[in-house]
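Lab notebook: predicted structure, single chain.

Context: the supervisor wants predicted structures on file for every construct in the current expression panel, including those that have not yet been purified. This is the next one on the list. No modifications to the sequence; it matches the entry in the shared construct table.
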Amino acid sequence: MVARRSLIASSLAGAAALLDGCATGTSQPSASSSGKIKLTILHHTPKDPAAFDKYYEQTHLPLAAAVKGLPAMERSKPMPLRPGAPTPYYQMVEFRFDSPDHFRSVMSSPEWAKVGDDVKNFATNGITIVASRIL
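Prediction complete. Output recorded below exactly as produced.
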């Protein structure tokens, strides 16, 4: 479990590294001149959803609110595609950044590092992180 927790924290802390080359267009041809970046965090279904929700609301969100420059977040609960089907994730959180520099600035802040370190305290079944260029 320690290895998984370390991986979660390092994934959030190192998210800005995903854009090395993306900002310059060397990783792939630019499909958009906007340069906007979206960060999506997919929370896998926790072992105790009620505890997850309580901790997230009372502890994790205030930590995120302290991050300077962090754009407004969009938080959602995935729905099953058909009645009775399981949902692939418990919760989805998205942030839209104005530019790769904005993204890097927020991701390299000490406040964001605290957010990343906190994930291990409530995301008992892990997370998936996706950084993408908005087309």
